[in-house]
Amino acid sequence: MELKKRYAGDKEALLRRWPDIEKKVKNAFLKVPRELFIEKELAIHAYDDTPLPIPADQTISQPTTVIRMLNELDLKKGQKVLEIGAGSGYNAAIMSKLVGNEGKVISIEIIPELVKFAKDNIKKAKITNVKIVKADGSKGYLKEKPYDRIICTAASPKIPKAWKEQLKNGGILLTPVGDLYGQVMVKVKRINKNYEIDELGHYLFVPLRGKHGFKLKKKK
Predict the structure, then answer these.
(1) Structural domain tally of the chain?
(2) Whole-angstrom Cα distance, residue 66 to residue 56?
(3) Which of 70, 87, 108, 158 gives the lowest tally of CB atoms within 10 Å of its CB?
(4) Do residues 105 and 119 lie in contact, with contact meaning Cβ atoms separated by under 8 Å?
(5) Domain residues for 97?
(6) Per-residue model confidence as pLDDT tens digits over 143-176
(7) What pairing do the DSSP bridges indicate for beta strands 182-191 and 194-203?
(8) Cα–Cα distance between 99 and 103 in angstroms, integer?
């Protein structure tokens, strides 16, 4: 009970930092327990505004980063979203609340250990409109295209052509683009065959893997 009280207090403290965030995004954040998406021993840090380690040497992004990205994504009820990089499943869980039961989130993950971790966490959270798929997300996901929104939660060296092609007319794509040492958050809006691009500041994410991701050396 004491831990639940602390979580509630920590959530409210985070919300007070975000006066410019839409109410629907804040409400979605409040509905998803971040403690379900991290290792049990780190649960006391669930609402610290910092990234936390998850399996396979990856991280769950800090709440501020998650919320600001979702605010820019402008999700609406009934939309279909493609997420590149399921990670812990936390970002997909919040998006599931924003698109509602009539919407759908397809979250692609290339690391087998994280596919299981995300699936287990989504199940614990009793969320039914999120589908976790093991695949190379740098190629998008043709089976469910086109998408109203596409979001990548890993650093990409460039925006893959497949993501643009799988985005609906009027749709929004959000991804950090750059090198391994820093990226710029890029917001892309498709207008017929044209793409309007805005830059939203500097970030640091784990690298995108797969055909159109970074070519990383395997650990010995």
Answers:
(1) 1
(2) 20
(3) 158
(4) no
(5) 2-203
(6) 999 999 999 999 999 999 999 999 999 999 999 9
(7) antiparallel
(8) 5
